[in-house]
Amino acid sequence: MPTPSLLIVPARFKSGKMYSQIPTSGAGDFTVTRATTATRFGPNGLIASVASGIPRLDYFASGGVVGCPALLVEPSGSNTFLYSTDTKTNWALGASLSSGAIDVIGVSGINITVVSGGSLITQTAGRYLSTNNNVSLASGSTYTFSFLMKKTGAHTIGGYRFAMSSGAIGAGFDVSGSFASGEITNTAPTTNRIRRVEQWGTDVYRCSETFTMTAAATAQTLAFAPLSGVTLTNNSAVGTSMGFAAPQLELGPVPTSFIPTTTAAVTRNADVISVSGAVSGSIGQTEGTIYAEIVAQPYNNSSFPAILQVDDGADSQRFALFLNASGGVRLRLNSPNNNIAIDPTSPTSLIAGQTYKIAAAFAFGGTTAFYINGVFQASGSVASGPFSSVLNRVNLGNRGATPAVISPFLIRAAALYTTRLTNAQLASLTT
Amino acid sequence: MATFRKYDFPNQATADKAMQSLQPLDNAVPLGEIDGLVCYDILFQDTPPAAFTPYIVWPAPLGVHSFLGWDEQYIKDYNEFGT
């Protein structure tokens, strides 16, 4: 197997910089730009703040288990839910419930126990209600509401309900392992509802729901409660409990990392990570190979975000691994004589939490091919080259457009080669 | 050095014209209309372009929106420039 011309396994960094292992000259070191602080999972498995400009090495890299870190790359996001780390200010506890403060992987939360039967999350007595809100939601826009649920006993089902200026939206989530979910309320002007459950540690789960507004409305009050079923508004049995923390309401089709808020909505800037200039020798002008190992996250596949892209500094001539419209990996090659897009065959879409090793190669006047986890995906012929502009920029976790097109990813490693690896080598590299 | 500023524009067209001078890594967050004005919070990667100067406002910290980690700096700037 040839030695890569550029190799980065995210580990060493300083503010504004991620160091590549190869080359050792510094020519392949990545510039990291994010002008806000942000959160990540630290090595202790707890959510913690990272200063602006510092790359986020996230230690929850494989399905909710603390392990080797991966580089967390996300688009900009805003949490419009106020006091997201404070589950006491402006919250009201129903008479059928009791509560106690708990820590939920580093975020202060609330444990709610049912003490009297017969109440519903739609009733004052059966819910823990926040009046911190009044968030304007625009018609036609897509939003995602996420929160953490912590199993504090044997019970496994809890849910939320947003009362809006017009109707309400709510859902139940079962974190027993089957990760079932369902609608408990659907009278708000919403459509295209998508729910997810992701395990984020022992007995802690991020639950989220994405929805698109069909008319403008205001999200007014938020209720949490332990529920008896994922489609039921009834409180669970007396004595059962569930913990809640980190409510986050953001514009966009996927949940992103937790953004703490107090008296105002808060925005986290995007992680823009790239290297340009002297890196030009890292990819061949007539042939080459790119490789990435990622842990897939809930993805935003609008505008074709790149996992790894080598380009001419203008997002024009390029060799790249994109997400396609189905959420699968797309090989992309653009040069004066080529406009190639090849989609995968297995898997045709990525699954959040799963690890993927992806390698793609090309040779002008020859062929292109790509593999995922050792499985041949597709190949095609490539017309003559070369690129008419020098490929002198490498974008990690973003497509070098303006603004940068980014979908959340955890990146374990990336590499470039100056030659087209054989198909057998691509299979070996991704196995 | 990044800079966090808040702006009220008389209308969207004026805002759009000013936005043409943004740099690629600047992050402009639209806050919608407040009291009939088109409001934006912007985190500039560097110094704000002159096109924005006439529209700067200094609501009492933190207003309705902030950037993560910038509360303290905004309060300092508010005390220096906004009061």
Give an overview of the whole structure:
The complex is a heterodimer of chains A (431) and B (83). The longest helix of chain A has 7 residues, at 423-429. Chain A is 2% helix and 47% strand. In chain A, the strands form six sheets. Chain A has a nine-stranded antiparallel sheet with strand order 2-3-4-24-33-26-27-28-29, with no helix packed on it. In chain A, strands 1, 7, 8, 25, 30, 31, 32 and 34 form an eight-stranded antiparallel sheet that branches. Chain A is elongated, with a radius of gyration of 23 Å. Chain A has 431 residues and is mostly beta strands. Chain B is α+β, with helices and mostly antiparallel strands. A four-stranded antiparallel sheet of chain B has the order 2-3-1-4. The radius of gyration of chain B is 12 Å and the shape is globular. The model of chain B has no long low-confidence stretch (mean pLDDT 96). Classes of the chains: A mainly beta (431), B alpha+beta (83). The A-B interface holds A 33, 35-38, 49, 51-52, 76, 78, 136, 259-260, 262-270, 272, 402-404 and B 2, 24-25, 27, 29, 32, 41, 43, 45, 62-71. β23 of chain A pairs parallel with β5 of chain B, so a sheet runs across the interface.
Write the topology of this structure:
The complex is a heterodimer of chains A (431) and B (83).
Chain A: E1 6-8, E2 13-14, E3 17-18, E4 30-33, E5 38-41, E6 47-50, E7 56-58, E8 70-73, E9 77-79, E10 91-93, E11 97-104, E12 107-114, E13 128-130, E14 135-137, E15 142-150, E16 157-164, E17 168-174, E18 181-186, E19 190-199, E20 204-213, E21 217-226, E22 241-251, E23 265-268, E24 272-276, E25 287-296, E26 306-311, E27 318-323, E28 329-335, E29 338-342, E30 355-363, E31 367-372, E32 375-381, E33 393-396, E34 409-417, H1 423-429
Antiparallel strand pairs in A: 1-34, 2-3, 3-4, 4-24, 5-6, 7-8, 8-34, 9-23, 10-13, 11-12, 12-22, 13-21, 14-21, 15-20, 15-22, 16-17, 16-21, 17-18, 19-20, 24-33, 25-30, 25-34, 26-27, 26-33, 27-28, 28-29, 30-31, 31-32
Chain B: E1 3-9, H1 12-19, E2 27-34, E3 37-44, E4 56-57, E5 65-67, H2 71-82
Antiparallel strand pairs in B: 1-3, 1-4, 2-3
